[in-house]
Amino acid sequence: MNQLLVHAGNTPTELIAYCEDNNILVEAYSPIAHGKILNNPDVAAMADRYGVSVPQLCIRYTLQLGTVSLPKTANPDHMRSNAQLDFEITDDDMDTLRTLRARDYGEHSVFPVYSGK
Question: CA-CA distance, 18 to 13, in Å (whole number)?
Answer without folding.
Answer: 9
